[in-house]
Write a structure and sequence with these properties.
Helices cover about 40% and strands about 15% of the residues. By secondary structure, the chain is α/β, with parallel strands linked by helices. The structure holds pyridoxal-5'-phosphate (PLP).
Length: about 375
């Protein structure tokens, strides 16, 4: 393999950052620009307007200059007060982040800790809220990116609303927007969050938050400064961000959104659906188990590697021999899983490459022959519908 290294591209298959869209990369070459201008106001409005349908809302999402966690923190800080009871659904690394944020901001966190790789049992959210009527807000991920599980947000919202019309539903959809349908208004959600480096094919640095009217009516009195969502909303509705925006990234986002809307949101989501199904078929052909039990994410697939020590050598082989970067497991899943992203600007052939690399790396380490079994399963699944 090393002979052809000179003609080997570097490829990333991590569930964030994801590869940049070609359109976004071109826009990244723009000269510097001042942001207190009509042109910037138009760019801001145009991005917000075209983000909204991806969130399924008529509320224009606020664009923050931060990574996704900044938007998570700003939602928790803005819509809870110290001592408030909140429910956190924690089924992985990112669920745990809600827990840690809740603790940091001195909420009274009721933690629903689930086995990593699983999702909540239907009915359990409603039951929990009936048991603990003090709960003012529910925090969850749409995709738990550490495990490859998609939590059914529509179902969660139904259960919350069966008990209360006032409880806030705050969803970290950072790795879900573009890969899964999100219907914020129809499902009656209160905050939905995403970030530029996940489904959008834009570098890290922008976070998006859509906020419901109900949430605005419950703004907390906590002190805040940089992440003052109310100030941002007022400013952004008038074409101005409170602070210096990452306007270079916004030009890249603008082009990425053109691409998404030229194809249509439904087609973009369907591509993720087909890629994720086809990768699961390929993994099945390699006789490897998936980490998630069910409720598979369309943003990534987590593959369980039970053979002791195999996961790190596979990752190393793919990195060293093929220049392909995959994500392993986090925390106690380190060395136990490999995660393959579908989220963002991966075309059919990009993902085919990932499957081929997996098959080659496994063969190199004595697991089967590299005879195209997985590649074949991927191709026939993707092209079947
Ligand atoms: C990537 C990701 C985040 C945010 O991470 P940042 O590094 O702050 O952008 C949060 N939640 C989920 C589910 C994610 O996938």
């Amino acid at each position: 393999m090393t002979d052809s290294y000179v003609y080997m591209k570097e490829r990333i298959y991590t569930p964030g950052p994801t590869p940049l869209s070609e359109e976004a990369r071109m826009a990244g070459a723009m000269p510097a620009e001042y942001h207190r201008t009509e042109a910037f106001a138009e760019l801001l409005h145009s991005c917000r307007k075209r983000l909204a349908p991806l969130f399924g809302t008529k509320e224009l999402p606020i664009i923050l200059t931060s990574s996704g966690t900044g938007a998570m923190e700003s939602c928790l800080a803005s819509f809870t007060s110290a001592g408030d009871s909140i429910l956190v659904i924690e089924a992985g690394k990112f669920g745990n982040r809600w827990y840690m944020l809740g603790e940091t901001y001195e909420c009274n966190v009721d933690r629903m800790v689930l086995e990593w790789g699983s999702t909540f049992e239907y009915g359990s959210i409603e039951q929990k809220l009936r048991q603990n009527p003090a709960i003012k807000a529910v925090f969850i991920q749409a995709n738990e990116t550490s495990t490859g599980v998609h939590h059914n947000i529509e179902q969660l919202a139904k259960e919350v609303r069966a008990v209360s019309k006032e409880t806030l539903i705050i969803v970290d959809a950072i790795s879900s927007i573009c890969a899964h349908k999100c219907e914020m208004d129809a499902w009656d959600l209160d905050c939905v969050i995403s970030g530029s480096q996940k489904g959008f094919g834009v570098p890290p640095g922008l976070a998006f938050v859509a906020v419901s009217q109900r949430a605005w009516s419950k703004l907390s009195k906590r002190p805040r400064f940089y992440f003052d969502l109310e100030r941002e909303k007022k400013g952004q509705d008038a074409g101005k961000t409170a602070w210096t925006p990452a306007n270079g990234l916004m030009h890249m986002l603008d082009r990425a959104l053109d691409h998404i809307h030229n194809n249509g949101v439904a087609a973009v989501i369907n591509h993720h659906r087909k890629s994720s199904i086809a990768v699961r078929k390929a993994i099945d052909a390699l006789e490897l188990p998936l980490f998630a039990k069910d409720h598979f994410s369309q943003a990534l697939t987590a593959v369980r590697i039970d053979q002791e020590g195999l996961a790190p050598v596979l990752l190393k082989t793919m990195k060293k021999d093929f220049r392909m970067i995959f994500a392993g497991g986090q925390d106690h899943l380190k060395g136990k899983i490999i995660r393959i992203a579908h989220l963002g600007y991966f075309d059919f052939f990009d993902t085919l490459n990932a499957v081929a690399a997996f098959e080659l790396a496994l063969a190199k380490h004595g697991r089967g022959k590299a005879c195209g079994k997985a590649v074949g399963a991927f191709m026939s699944s993707y092209t079947a519908d």
